[in-house]
Amino acid sequence: MKLYLGIVGFVLTMISCQQNGNKSHTGDSINEKDSSSTSTHTLDDGHYCYILTEGNNNQDTTKVHFIINTNEVTGEMDWLPYEKDSRKGTLQGSINGENVDVKWTHMQEGMSDTLQLQFRLTSGMELYQKPLKVNTDNQREETDESADYSIKYAAVDCK
Question: Among residues 141, 79, 76, 85, which one has the least CA distance to residue 109?
Answer without folding.
Answer: 85
